Each structure stands twice: as structure tokens, then as C-alpha cells.
Amino acid sequence: MLIRGAVAVAVGVAAGLLTADWRIGATLGIGTLVAFVVHASRRYSEVPRWRRPNAAQRRTEAQLRLMKRLGYRVLHARGIPGGNGQIDHFVVGRRGAFAIDSESWDKRLPLRNKLEKLYHGKFSKNERIDEALEEARTAQKLISERLGREIDIRASLAIYGPSMPWDSHNLRGVDVITGTKVRKWLRSGKSQNLSEKEIEEIYKAAEEVLPARY
Predict the structure, then answer these.
(1) From 169's CA, which of 73, 100, 125, 158 has a CA 20 to 30 Å away?
(2) For residues 49 and 37, what is the distance between their CA atoms, to the nearest angstrom?
(3) Residues sharing a CB contact under 8 Å with residue 198, sequence separation 6 or more, in sequence order
(4) What pLDDT digit, counting tens, does each position of 129-138 carry?
(5) Helix (H, G, I), strand (E, B), or coil: what is residue 130?
(6) Who contacts 69 (Cβ-Cβ below 8 Å, separation ≥6)?
(7) Cβ(177)–Cβ(168) below 8 Å
């Protein structure tokens, strides 16, 4: 802030000397300081930068808002106890419970499945798939223990950017989904036919055992 104040004073003095009018210099100096303050206020957020949802997470979140009208319950950015993992979107509805992570990858590189391995261009993404699966399994274990009965949670990755030869494809136990097709994926496939009571119980349990990240 001291540097910005010094710059504002320098601008005011220079303008005053050039115009031979101290009032013009003062006006420009104050205007410069105000511009600095406005710029800084726009950049400030009470939410730490690393916790803010990225563009891919926001796009999935927007799709999930519509699913709430169909009775689905949703939690965003839930941490995994004892680690640094995060489930971007935990969703539970009549078709079951889902752990969805949202990713934005380079659209210039193709996404392909080769011998049950996912490649983005020449880069293997198996580690990311295994991470998503481990997060879902941990959530499944914690929620099942809380409820006292076995709960199934499907792991998934919603990918934005690269074109894919499928809307969704199960790979190594994880559903890899075209990001823009999340709603379609949730509404298709085998239904578990969860009751409203079961949906609410699973949602409440997830809320308790998976801490909010922001």
C-alpha cells in the first residue's frame, strides 16, 4: 500500500508540474490512489484462493442445481478425513450415490482408452482415475459405518475440454464422463431405487463424515 501511495503522489506531482496547476495534480494523484484501491478490492476474497472452485467444478455445479428439482441431494467440495483428497461433488438420489470429480483438460489432446488405461494425448491419467476411486471407496466406508449398513458409491470423473468417443465409459472402476453430459449420466444406467428416507439418510451421513473444504 505504501508503494501505491508513493506512485499516486508521484503522479500528482508530475501532473502538477506539467500543467502548472496543483489542483490538477492533486486530482490525478487522488484518482490514481482510488484506482489502486478499487483494483485491490476486486482481487480480494475471504475464501482462500486454493479453496475456490475451478471452472470445471462450477460447470458441474450448475448442472447439479437442476438435479435438485428431481429430488437429488448434493454436497460440494467435501474433504477426505486423514488426507488431502477431495470429492468435488457428492450426489445422492433415487438412482444411487455418486462421487464426482470435475477436471478441465487440454482440448487439443485426444482422450482415449487403451488396454483399460486412460490417455490424454500421450500422457497416462491412470493415477487420477485411481485417486478418484480411492476417494469414493473411503467415502463409502465412512458412510456405511455411520449408517450401519453397506452403501454403494459410484466413482466418476467429469472431463471438460477434450473430445471423447463416448458420453460415459467405466474404466478401472470409475465412470469417465463427458463433462457436459453429467445430468444425462446421472439419469441413466441401472437404478438402485433409493427411497426418499434412504436418500436423506445417506446425505446426512455424508455431510457428517466428509468435512466441507470451504
Answers:
(1) 73
(2) 20
(3) none
(4) 999 999 999 9
(5) helix
(6) none
(7) yes
Crossing angle of helices 196-209 and 126-147, rounded to 10°: 110
Strand order in the sheet with 86-93: 73-79, 86-93, 96-104, 153-160, 174-178, 168-171
Phi and psi of 9, rounded to 5°? -65, -45
Q: Which of 52, 9, 50 is nearest to 30 (CA)?
A: 9
User: pLDDT per residue over 62-99, tens digit each?
Assistant: 999 989 888 899 999 999 998 788 999 999 999 999 99
Report the alpha-carbon distance of residue 162 to residue 108 in Å, rounded. 6
For the cut 90, the answer to whether the pLDDT of residue 31 exceeds it is: no
User: Which cell numbers in the block locate residue 184?
Assistant: 444425462
What type of residue is 94? R
Grid-cell match 447439479, residue found: 64
Select from 202, 213, 211 the least CA-distant residue to 74.
202
Distance CA 209, CA 74 (A): 14
Residue with cell 441431494: 73
Look up residue 10 and give its three cell numbers.
Answer: 508521484
> What are the cell numbers at 132?
478418484
Collect all residues with Cβ–Cβ distance below 8 Å to 15 and sequence separation of at least 6: 24, 25, 28, 29
**Stated pTM of the model:** 0.73
Place of cell 458441474: 60
